[in-house]
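Structure ticket #2291
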Amino acid sequence: MERVLADNLPALHSLVSGRRRDFGAVTAGLSTPWSSGQVEGHVTRVKLLKRMGYGRANLDLLRQRVLLGP
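Resolution: structure written out below.
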């Protein structure tokens, strides 16, 4: 990171400064035993249902499909 900051590459400077700012969160995310896979699966499912009803349905139908399942 020090070498990148020493060079004249502003785009990489932004990357390094962002990484330094979020270093604690990145370290915690990579070192905890918990996984967000199940939550991400539900988010993906809801997005799919939303896309399937795009232009034809309103929020009430989406809510019903999400709560009642497949």
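Closing remark: Helices lie at 2-6, 10-21, 23-31, 37-52, 59-68.
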